[in-house]
Write a structure and sequence with these properties.
Length: 180
């Protein structure tokens, strides 16, 4: 199926029905979007944004960015990890609520570790890297903000935004399963 129930219970009948409804909406609009397509599009979108310097990684950095420039945020990607830290869960809930209130799109992925594998470079961070602002690839990937591009949206950006639009009315919201 490709999606996990957002509450961690595994696939449910409601989610199956929602995925079928989403597939029908994308067929009606002339587009067919399979779960593999959105995974590839989201990965490409994240990597392009990283290369262009449009990513903000980490809960606290994201909160700061949202406070200063919420209109510049195209998409908020939240990991659907089962965090044991209650304070972190509260931060996530507040971030998500802020995004909904400010019409910022929120997409959930299955694990922050998979985002770290995709965006992290594995090289050690030293004081010079931190001073140069290169520490983002070595930290918290539980929340990633993607800013709007300076030019037009890329094909991958459009695919992700189309996926979001086609799933606006789907509850519970789908969680995108990223490859390991």
């Amino acid at each position: 199926m490709g999606y996990l129930d957002t509450y961690g219970r595994g696939p449910s009948q409601e989610l199956v029905n929602n995925n079928a409804a989403q597939h029908e909406r994308t067929k009606e609009s002339g587009r067919t979007m399979s779960p593999m397509d959105i995974r590839s599009a989201l990965q490409t979108c994240l990597l392009e944004a990283w290369e262009q310097g449009r990513l903000t990684c980490g809960v606290y950095h994201a909160a700061s960015m949202l406070e200063k420039n919420p209109d510049e945020v195209m998409l908020c990607v939240l990991a659907d990890d089962n965090f044991q830290d209650v304070a972190l869960r509260i931060h996530f809930t507040l971030l998500e609520a802020f995004c909904w209130e400010n019409d910022i799109r929120v997409i959930k992925v299955d694990a922050s570790s998979k985002l770290a594998n995709l965006l992290g470079d594995g090289e050690p961070v030293n004081d010079n890297d931190v001073a140069a602002g290169r520490s983002a690839r070595q930290g918290d990937f539980s929340c990633v903000l993607i800013e709007y591009p300076k030019d037009d949206n890329s094909v991958a950006d459009e695919e992700v935004l189309d996926f979001y639009k086609s799933n606006e009315d789907v509850l519970p919201r789908p969680v995108i399963t990223l490859p390991d």
